[in-house]
Amino acid sequence: MRALVKRRAGPGLELDEVPRPTIGINDVLIRVHKTGICGTDLHIESWDPWAARTIQPPLIIGHEFVGHVADVGSNVSDFHPGDLVSGEGHVVCGRCRHCLAGRRHLCANTIGLGVGRDGAFAEYVALPMANVWHHWPGIDEEVAAIFDPFGNAVHTALAFPVLGEDVLVSGAGPIGLMATAVVRHAGARKVVVSEPNAYRRALAERMGATLVMDPRDRTFADVMPELGMVEGFDVALERSGNPTALRSAISSMAHGGAIAILGIPTQEISIDVNEIVFKMLTLRGIYGREMFETWYKMTVMLQSGLDIRPAITHRFSFLEHRAAFAAARSGDSGKVIMDWTT
Ligand code: NAD
Ligand code: ZN
Fold first, then answer.
1. Residues 211-231: tens digit of each pLDDT
2. Mean confidence (pLDDT) of the chain
3. Collapsed DSSP state (helix, strand, coil) of residue 255
4. What sign for the dihedral angle of Cα 12, 317, 122, 286?
5. Overall average pLDDT of the 121-148 stretch
6. What is the torsional sign of CA 20, 22, 142, 81?
7. Fewer CB atoms inside 10 Å of the end CB: C or N, the chain?
8. 31 contacts 70 by C-beta, under 8 angstroms
9. What is the dihedral of CA 330, 336, 338, 342, to 10 degrees?
10. By alpha-carbon position, which residue is closest to atom 34 of ligand 1?
11. How far is ligand 2, taken at its centre, from the CA of residue 75, in Å?
């Protein structure tokens, strides 16, 4: 089969002919249809310091995908050849305290698809059956392909109640864009999106933001009176990893507000803990998706009218992987999809 492989330590990826994965008795083999490119894939492609200390080549990268079941192990009874599926990319140990209690997203021994084991940028991918998610027939396959980052967006957006609340979103990358649509769907009153990139600000408007702002031109305090807001934001979703963005979110919160932090900073961030104490704020880190409550929520929100399709902006064949990666890296894009069937 063909696959995008990190062959050796250093920048670049190669589209190689490699053996199809073999499956164990509890595994599912999936013929990949479409994949999404994530920031993680860009880090691995460019071989930044995180990739250099994390990735052991050779490795097939990629973890956002949809495809159909091609084969199943002898112990697998609820997946059948032809079923349309995606996969949860966090493969957990199953034996630790949290796994045994059903809190698999808290497993400390998680191995990432396309990071610690061969991934989905390939014609076939194998996963344990406990990581495979059935889609309903007729789901838009591009949407199904990005259930992994959509799940990051939903996990963060629903970390705190948003019904009737004023929500701040910093960073309108693909995940911030999808989260904007999710909090609107979940009943937020005002949703303010802060994003320096003009292309992404325009997308945030399409996703339902009440107001979009460039953090280089305006502060949250500037826009609050315009929206009739008096006390500050009730909920903030930090999706940029940027130190200034986190600090401005903290100082724009109402008393008792809550901040869900998904953005991954490249350096330590210093914050004023006085603000957290005296405003009695809650800060919560969000990693991955809850297995499988987040997947259930994604499914039912789509079925009840949530539309995340405007966040998908570019489509390529896997043969054009260089152009696809360039589009994802440019910043002037939402989600970039690669098709593995054409
Ligand atoms: P992205 O890098 O495409 O988006 C980040 C956005 O933040 C960019 O559009 C950037 O212009 C914007 N930004 C930069 N400085 C800003 C500022 N001061 N204020 C507001 N916005 C600012 O990333 P993405 O794919 O949308 O992911 C969002 C973040 O979540 C990234 O940091 C990513 O590494 C992280 N992430 C975390 C998890 C997890 O499980 N915790 C999973 C996937 C991605
Ligand atoms: Zn575990």
1. 999 999 999 999 999 999 999
2. 97
3. strand
4. positive
5. 97
6. positive
7. C
8. yes
9. -100
10. 264
11. 21
Position 204 pLDDT exceeds 90: yes
Residue from 314, 318, 307, 342 nearest 328 by CA: 314
Give the position, in ligand 1's atom list, of the atom nearest the Cα of 39: 25
| Per-residue DSSP letter, 281 | -
Q: Which ligand is nearest to the CA of 98?
A: 2
| Identified catalytic residue from 33, 35, 43, 313 | 43
Q: If DSSP codes are grouped into helix, strand and coil, which group holds residue 246? A: helix
342 pLDDT exceeds 90?
Answer: no
Pocket test for ligand 1, best of 88, 195, 223, 291 (most atoms within 8 A of CB): 195
CA atoms of 8 and 99, how far apart (whole Å): 34
Measured distance CA(325)–CA(24) in Å, rounded: 32
In the prediction, which pLDDT does 107 show?
A: 97
